[in-house]
Amino acid sequence: MEQPTKLVFFFLLVITCSSCGADASPKQHYKRVREPCKRLVFYFHDIIYNGENAKNATSAIVGTPAWGNRTILAGQNHFGDVVVFDDPITLDNNLHSPPVGRAQGFYIYDKKEVFTAWLGFSFAFNSTQHKGSINFAGADPLMNKTRDISVIGGTGDFFMTRGVATLSTDAFEGEVYFRLRVDVKLFECW
Amino acid sequence: MEQPTKLVFFFLLVITCSSCGADASPKQHYKRVREPCKRLVFYFHDIIYNGENAKNATSAIVGTPAWGNRTILAGQNHFGDVVVFDDPITLDNNLHSPPVGRAQGFYIYDKKEVFTAWLGFSFAFNSTQHKGSINFAGADPLMNKTRDISVIGGTGDFFMTRGVATLSTDAFEGEVYFRLRVDVKLFECW
Amino acid sequence: MEQPTKLVFFFLLVITCSSCGADASPKQHYKRVREPCKRLVFYFHDIIYNGENAKNATSAIVGTPAWGNRTILAGQNHFGDVVVFDDPITLDNNLHSPPVGRAQGFYIYDKKEVFTAWLGFSFAFNSTQHKGSINFAGADPLMNKTRDISVIGGTGDFFMTRGVATLSTDAFEGEVYFRLRVDVKLFECW
């Protein structure tokens, strides 16, 4: 009976040490598995104020370069326009679907030669399904079919989360309406 | 003497393995304990420039929607107003207490129907007590008694930190002065 | 033969437990080693639009306080000026070196008494060397020789990264051109 018992100890030790080695390396330079702990897909809908749509608008130009104005996006690929938004979030691509939250924050067009923006915003949820917020930041080279920004934190149901969100422009109409699809992939869940 | 020794080994193994199992799972999808590694409470004081208080003002409106101006917060719950600030941080709720640092950054009012803001700012410390910075971002639905934003990073004494900060409006006077209480709960400390 | 074997077990257990204790403590309050998993040095070059340099300008003032205008940085240490930029990134300090990416985002001068800014921006790479983005946020007290901001996330080659970036002003010419050296130290690499 004695040798088998020792063998069990030995195996337990090997298992224990190999997992510790992977994670408790003093330098923390191990490779982590890139599989999301949570994944969510949403759409949000942005209607920019153009001087005539005050009632429906969900966003407004609040900063412009010297050559711009606040009722129409500026020339040179809108370079320098700062837009503040409070956009409905829906589960499908229909603007009129019941919103499940609000996308709130700002984007800045930041390149003269091509459409490119920088985004800082949150998804704010307060429904039976989700409570709390997901915070995002990053560059959005919006002529690319898909582009990745960072999930930099979260609160409530998304406490301390981090990840990557893949954006794609699902639709746009002139320079007043656009719809973004956001594929939220969370890699740190608490 | 032999069986007790083995028993000790066994217990050690169980302890060892259970903690490794919790943390070193190859997918990193374990539940982490939500107890702060550091907790700090501060107040900061914002005095918005209104055209007449240049000397005392600690913040200024620097962007507005087309219908706004930069010496008074805009109608529609200030939607679209961008405010830059450099506010004193104090340990208690007295504006005239010796500041222990500065809260620096911006907020954007981002909703037409109700007061709501988006914040990007830092606490900058350079005292005997604290050196370094804590960086914050997130949505601030400021009609709620308390609301959580993300601590997205830090430097110096707060190197690489992450966490959640609970904001509450401690006081306000008209549309010129407000005081925020910030309960900083750090869950990643290096 | 029996006692030595047990001794080996004992040592293995001690090693195992000490590393687990360091990393897998249920409270996650261990000290991590502060050695970067990746380190990169870049320069970026900012040429502010001043009404006459439309062709060369890489940035523009898009928000100002009531007393400012958008073709020259405002008085009082530019307090309240919001600048949007799309700046070339180079590997050395030569503006005319081939750019390896773009620094895109914004900065806000946020203090009346001294030059201090708040930055939100990304390094966007799309070359054979680097693909993806690094996202930054933080306070930049730019009269200090060096100052640290946070790396709050990344995508592509810099997937999920976090760290600290040390900024230094490498050169400036009047109020139109400046060059920042950015020493990017990543402490979380996936």
CATH homology superfamily name of chain A:
Allene oxide cyclase-like
Count of helices of chain A?
1
What amount of the residues of chain A lies in strands? over 45%
CATH level 1 name of chain A: Mainly Beta
The pLDDT mean of chain A sits at 85
GO biological process, one term (chains A, B, C): phenylpropanoid biosynthetic process
Protein name (chains A, B, C): Dirigent protein
Subcellular location (chains A, B, C): Secreted, Extracellular space, Apoplast
Keywords (chains A, B, C): Apoplast, Secreted, Signal
Structure description:
- The structure is a homotrimer of 190-residue chains.
- The radius of gyration of chain A is 23 Å and the shape is globular.
- Helices cover 12% and strands 46% of the residues of chain A.
- Chain A has one domain: Allene oxide cyclase-like (AOC barrel-like, Beta Barrel).
- The first copy, chain A, has one helix and nine strands.
- Chain A has one helix at residues 2-23; strands spanning 38-47, 59-63, 82-90, 101-109, 117-126, 131-140, 147-156, 162-173, 177-188.
- Chains in contact: A-B, A-C, B-C.
- At the B-C interface, helix 1, strand 2, strand 3, strand 4 and strand 5 of B face helix 1, strand 6, strand 7 and strand 8 of C.
Which descriptors would you attach to this protein?
AOC barrel-like, 8-stranded antiparallel barrel, 1 helix, 190 residues, globular, 9 strands, homotrimer, mainly beta
Quick recap of the structure?
The structure is a homotrimer of 190-residue chains. Chain A has one helix at 2-23, and strands at residues 38-47, 59-63, 82-90, 101-109, 117-126, 131-140, 147-156, 162-173, 177-188.
